[in-house]
Design brief:
The chain is mainly beta. It is 6% helix and 68% strand. The chain has one helix and eleven strands, in the order βββββββββββα.
């Protein structure tokens, strides 16, 4: 169920001016139907601002993202928060797992093999099996020099990966880690 309003003109990045608002009563992804979402977006000559609100019973949150499509390296920056999330109904875990967090993204992407920037997950609260965990920050940095590198920093982990890898595989790997 979707109710949307689009106002604007132009189809070329150099002239496009568009405002988009959508109220999404229900949308199904990964065998779960998310309820009560809203998207507001403005695109001015390829410079796009998007605001997303989620008010589902298993995931509440909001986020803002900024993407400039008129750049060889597309800058993506944004912030957001998830105030309550249960991973089990969302098909990301087979047990009740609750989490809340804030996040920040500042990334430049040409494609999945050519990118640099960081993603920071802050004030992560994670609850599983009656145990609660708190992590102040997990920061993932990507850099392109002569070699590709990904570095991770957190309260309990420091590491790096240097060499050949593909970021497109990261979402499936993260899902696999949540089940372990």
């Amino acid at each position: 169920d979707l109710v949307a309003e689009v106002k604007g003109k132009g189809f070329d990045l150099s002239t496009i001016r568009t405002n988009f608002t959508a109220n999404i009563a229900a949308i199904t992804y990964n065998k779960y139907t998310y309820m009560d979402s809203k998207v507001d977006a403005v695109n001015h000559k390829g410079d796009m601002q998007v605001h997303l609100q989620l008010a589902d019973e298993n995931i509440n949150g909001e986020g803002q993202i900024h993407v400039n499509l008129d750049n060889p390296y597309t800058p993506i920056d944004g912030t957001g928060s998830i105030t309550r999330r249960n991973l089990k109904p969302l098909e990301f875990h087979n047990s009740d797992v609750h989490l809340s967090t804030d996040f920040t993204i500042d990334f430049f992407v040409n494609d999945f093999s050519n990118h640099h920037g960081f993603i920071s997950i802050d004030d992560l609260d994670y609850e599983l099996g009656g145990y609660s965990y708190k992590i102040n920050q997990i920061r993932l940095e990507s850099e392109q020099t002569e070699e590709k590198s990904i570095r991770i920093y957190s309260d309990f982990l420091r590491g790096s990966l240097i060499g050949e890898f593909h970021l497109g595989a990261l979402p499936e790997q993260l899902k696999a880690w949540t089940y372990s």
